[in-house]
Design a protein that fits this description.
5 strands; three-stranded parallel sheet; mainly alpha; 10% strand; elongated; 51% helix
Length: 336
């Protein structure tokens, strides 16, 4: 399991994250019937005769309506597109059902609980894999289609959510998470750091209650190990454990960048001013020499000729000087 997956697993081990995921993104009527106060994790690894134990899934259950109906949420964290994800999901759910049958000693009269499989994808390319297992199976005539399995997973493709879509999801932790990850698409590190700090301002306020202490620290761990090294690799990684400390560090870093940019701007301005002064002085000397050569060859110059020559730039002055060598009249040099 990658560092990204481990950090994500820690974030989604908090019921508040799962609740915000369902409320903000699944967006189906039955979600409103869930009693989120009953959210609890279920054993998240199980064995198969042919497969190794899986430890990178998070499975929850929650009460639905007046009775204890179980909804198991299986989260898959993918950074690359798996075209056969629907097959993997079918296998995982089968293993989960097998685990439930064995551990809960289900009888023939018992029903298996519904499962909501969720794939969270944070890659840069748009997800294009089929979301239903039936779409991966060849269609055949003659009634065989009725045996084709039907199983669909819910996809959360972070790249499809713009800042305009996410910002209105107030106090939604998953929306904040996606906003942070999407900062990788900004044009420079200063813009990335500023966008991260904007989201952290909100998170500090949302999660200020003591009950969210562990969640705040898990967010900091994810920021330090995953987000900051990837999105702003040149920023110093601090030794902090609290979200407020992280936010303050980012604010100070941004202010330091502004000060450095201001100093660079002043130095550049002084340097450019000195250079322009030198060039201006050099051009004035060239004009004076050129006027003296004109008087030497053609006699005293009218005032309007002097004004005209004084307004020539260095390139025009060079062309006039080249024509002076063979010119018979003043007009041959500077024109009418």
């Amino acid at each position: 399991m990658t560092e990204h997956d481990q950090s994500y697993k820690r974030l989604f081990s908090h019921p508040k994250m799962v609740e915000d995921l369902l409320r903000g993104f699944v967006n189906e009527k039955w979600v409103n019937q869930l009693d989120f106060s009953t959210l609890e994790t279920v054993k998240d690894s199980f064995m198969s005769d042919n497969l190794k134990a899986r430890h990178d899934d998070i499975i929850w259950r929650v009460r639905w309506g007046p009775k204890w109906l179980y909804i198991f949420i299986l989260l898959e964290f993918q950074s690359t597109i798996d075209p056969f994800m629907a097959v993997r999901i079918m296998v995982y759910i089968g293993l989960l059902y097998q685990h439930l049958i064995e551990t809960q000693k289900l009888k023939a009269k018992d029903k298996l609980p519904p499962v909501l499989p969720i794939v969270i994808y944070n890659g840069s390319d748009k997800w294009n894999a089929k979301q239903n297992i039936s779409q991966l199976i060849e269609k055949v005539p003659g009634g065989l289609e009725k045996y084709r399995p039907q199983l669909r997973y819910f996809l959360l493709d972070e790249s499809t959510f713009s800042e305009a879509k996410l910002a209105p999801l107030l106090k939604n932790l998953v929306a904040a998470l996606i906003r942070l990850e999407n900062t990788r698409n900004l044009e420079n590190e200063q813009a990335v750091a500023k966008a991260i700090q904007t989201v952290l301002d909100a998170l500090v306020e949302w999660l200020k209650d003591p009950e969210f202490e562990r969640l705040r620290r898990d967010i900091v761990t994810w920021l330090l190990r995953v987000l900051l090294p990837h999105n702003v690799p040149n920023i110093p990684i601090p030794q902090v454990v609290e979200l407020q400390e992280m936010n303050s560090m980012l604010y100070e870093t941004i202010q330091d960048w502004y000060k450095e940019a201001e100093v660079r701007g002043k130095v550049l301005g002084r340097t450019q001013g000195r250079l322009e002064g030198r060039l201006e002085g050099r051009l004035e000397g060239q004009v004076e020499i050129f006027l003296q050569l004109l008087e030497t060859k053609f006699g005293p110059l009218e005032s309007d000729v002097r004004v005209y020559v004084n307004h020539l730039d260095s390139q025009a002055l060079l062309k006039c000087s080249q024509r002076l060598l063979t010119a018979q009249t003043l007009t041959d040099v500077i024109g009418q």
